[in-house]
């Protein structure tokens, strides 16, 4: 049963959030398996307080599904290229169902071989990457995931977009606690944050982007029309390039420039490949939660620094106790875009 906390948010249960997302996606004709996978990942993000990739993404799925090549009926199936290399074609549907269906085989192959790679191809929008690497680490493996996006990002020292916002996620399994997980874009700031600065009439910090002429700019509108910049100068630029190469040409999929060209003004989410790698620490004679690994992770915490994932797990615990917070305006918008209001929702 949905409850209320303060004026701008409502709280709903995880089951209600899932039903809301599922109803929305199915109302737009998305096949049930794709809708369930997408609803699950968006609800996980909302539950963990990762609002940029939570239910706020639902309205935008309409734009992606409106792309003339989007396939609402895609039914991806994994295929073993070699024992260590698995491919799954998302078939121009959302990436998330393909990634989900590829994971059991990836995990099984990495467990026996020590390392295995899953290439997800031709999928729209991987959303947040941490749910996938977290799931692999819960099976006792380390994991990495990465993908290109659209060519919104100029290289350090360059003048125009050629790289994507190219997120990178990593997970390391721990014995008696949640895995160590980080997940972020390789840009100085998220595109959504730059849009927020524009909407609030604020100027950007130095180093976030360039205008159309390739000159450094602190004007958010100019940067959105020009190019974003990687984090950490040449270091972030090289990491974004690695992601571009490894989750693009290496797996026979699109670069960020090719993804943007494919969009043809549809304003769909990027269409890209995703590279997911799983490593079995036990094959080199280590087991998850070995003393050395725990010494590193505890040594970070012992200095008062926090580990990535801690905020997320605190939000998860809060959601489990109090329900999932959802902005009232977003909830109303989602309902208004649906053909009929399901009676179980407030
Ligand atoms: P952030 O810059 O917000 O960084 C997020 C990561 O850093 C999290 O793992 C977070 O942990 C950790 N972190 C944040 N602050 C600290 C701190 N002070 N100390 C230690 N760790 C910290 O992420 P982005 O805005 O770049 O990306 C957000 C999401 O957007 C990601 O999930 C990413 O996958 C997604 N994204 C997806 C794209 C796609 O193509 N699908 C493209 C670009 C981004 P915690 O969660 O605990 O706060």
* CATH fold node name of the largest domain: Ribosomal Protein S8, Chain: A, domain 1
By CATH, the superfamily of the largest domain comes out as Malate/L-lactate/L-sulpholactate dehydrogenase, NADPH binding domain
What is the residue-averaged pLDDT?
94
Taken as a percent bin, the fraction of beta residues is 15-25%
Radius of gyration: 20 Å
Principal-axes shape call: globular
Q: What is the ordering of alpha helices and beta strands? A: EEHHHEEHEHEEEHEEHEHHEHHEH
Into how many domains do the coordinates divide?
2
CATH class of the largest domain: Alpha Beta
* CATH architecture identity of the largest domain: 2-Layer Sandwich
Counted beta strands: 13
Number of helices: 12
* SS content category: alpha+beta
Enumerate the strands of the largest sheet in spatial order, edge to edge or round the barrel.
Answer: 3-4-5-12-6-7-8
Q: Which molecules are bound in this entry?
A: NADPH dihydro-nicotinamide-adenine-dinucleotide phosphate
How far is the N terminus from the C terminus? 9 Å
Helix content: 25-40%
Largest sheet: 7 strands, mixed
Low-confidence stretches: 1-5
